[in-house]
Amino acid sequence: MAWIILIIVLAILVIWYVSAYNGLIKTRTYVQESWSQIDVQLKRRNDLIPNLVSTTKGYANYEQGTLKKVVELRNQLTAIPADDHQQTMEVSNQLSTTLRSLFALSENYPDLKANTQFTQLMEELTNTENKIAYSRQLYNSSVAKLTLMIQSFPSNIVAKVHHFQTSEYLQVPEEEKTTPKVNFDDFNQSDK
Amino acid sequence: MLYDQIAMNKRRTGYVMFGFGLLVLLIGAALGYLFWSNWQSGAVIAAVVAGIYMLIMISQSTNVVMSMNHAREITDVSQAPELWHLIEDMAMVGKVPMPRVFIIDDPSPNAFATGNSPEKAAVAVTTGILQRLNREELEGVIGHEISHVRNYDIRLQTIALALSAAIGMLVNFASNWLWWGGGRRRDDDRDSGGNVIVLVISIVLVVLAPLAASIAQMALSRNREYLADASSVELTRNPQGLINALRKIDDSEPMEAADPNSSALYIGDPLKNKHRLGDLFATHPPIADRIARLEKM
């Protein structure tokens, strides 16, 4: 009788251990995947910037200084080693801010705004900017999940044995920091 | 929170389908008894027809709903880059597959989502919403629609819509038949009995018609729009965009292309009914309330 109980307890422990380990692996893979999503968008933006330069070439007076800064930041970004996520995002955030001001300034150039190639490019760049922001949001939420698993009992035991490490959160630019607190209780009063 | 919503929606979808099945059997049995004095064959025929109808409806619901609302599908990003990109963004951050994209030619700003599951979802917006809303506002609206997709509101609404339309059709058909064909029973030998049955059945059918419509209503959570608004902000992190969008949607003329039966699907009531029967039967919560809740965030 005692043997049966012992076997059952052992079996439960093994099953728990395996599922905790698999959960950690899954979450870590998700963190890596969400980084590669960011990376895809960063590359896409790097490819779009030369187009921006060539499209605006005809408009000699179009914000040369800002444009130059954009190109510089882009080249800086391509030079950063691939695994340095923090620095990549830091430069990327600067590039985002500069691009945004460039687009805001384009309001002063009616000729340019009438150029369909330019408006298309603007849509493309806005799209990549948004996708970078959203993939960063996903990245940070999966990092939060991984951190929770690594730190909380009992999954921390499995994490320690297999040397799981949490990743760093990616910085969010100042102007995007004001995230509203969503409180579902406010929205779900009278139902059920 | 999301899992609760999904579970509740799946449960309610089950209830709606069960209720519909029961209702169809009853109507079938009543008609069978009335016309062939044999309720079993009526019930069997009704079950078979309703079963086939349900299968067709469930597999084709997106196309049916879209054509009822005069929506045309766009299949390439170049046809509406901004809309396409926003839907892509919201699907990404909401972790659902990219839905199909439809456009309705109507100057009134509005939007809805439909489909049987997040994998087979579709989002439709009017040309009016594309013209009148800026990117931020449109993002709030798309976030709202993707939230409906994510929490299975779309499955419940689409099936409730399909089934209540079917019952409406059946009741219509049966009452016509009763009116013109059923009357002949009066000269038959089963005089008194037949008359009473005809009377009872007509009363039942008259009661059923509005009941069929309210099934769809009952199935829909009165909070679904508030919840989708909140989930939208959770995705976009920008309540102001959705607030401005709702103001613009509120402050507009009724839609022409919208199908009245599908009005519950839309983000704002497309018919602009001024709640004739009071809030109890309104398909949408007042926009002012929705804005007030968003402003509290």
TrEMBL record, chain A:
Pfam family, one: LemA
Membrane listed as a keyword: yes
SUPFAM superfamilies: LemA-like
Subcellular location per the Swiss-Prot or TrEMBL entry: Membrane
InterPro entries reported in the protein's UniProt record: LemA-like_dom_sf, MamQ_LemA
Main location: membrane
Keywords: Membrane, Transmembrane, Transmembrane helix
Membrane-topology annotation of the record: Single-pass membrane protein
Gene Ontology CC terms, in alphabetical order: membrane
PANTHER family named among the record's database cross-references: MEMBRANE PROTEIN, PROTEIN LEMA
Entry similarity comment: Belongs to the LemA family.
UniProt name for this protein: LemA family protein
Taxonomic source organism: Levilactobacillus parabrevis ATCC 53295
Lineage: Bacteria, Bacillati, Bacillota, Bacilli, Lactobacillales
TrEMBL record, chain B:
Residues reported in the UniProt entry to bind Zn(2+): H144, H148, E225
Record-level Gene Ontology MF annotations: metalloendopeptidase activity; zinc ion binding
Signal peptide range: none
Gene Ontology biological process: proteolysis
A GO-annotated cellular component: plasma membrane
Assigned keywords, A-Z: Cell membrane, Hydrolase, Membrane, Metal-binding, Metalloprotease, Protease, Stress response, Transmembrane, Transmembrane helix, Zinc
Protein's cellular compartments: Cell membrane
Keyword rRNA processing tagged: no
Listed transmembrane segments: 15-36, 42-59, 159-180, 192-216
Textual note on the cofactor: Binds 1 zinc ion per subunit.
Protein source organism: Levilactobacillus parabrevis ATCC 53295
Family: Belongs to the peptidase M48B family.
Co-factor(s): Zn(2+)
Record's bilayer topology term: Multi-pass membrane protein
Principal location listed in the UniProt entry: membrane
Taxonomic placement: Bacteria, Bacillati, Bacillota, Bacilli, Lactobacillales
Active-site residues, Swiss-Prot/TrEMBL: E145
InterPro entries: HtpX_protease, Pept_M48_protease_HtpX, Peptidase_M48
Enzyme class: hydrolase
Residue ranges of domain Peptidase M48 in the record: 79-296
Name this protein carries in UniProt: Protease HtpX homolog
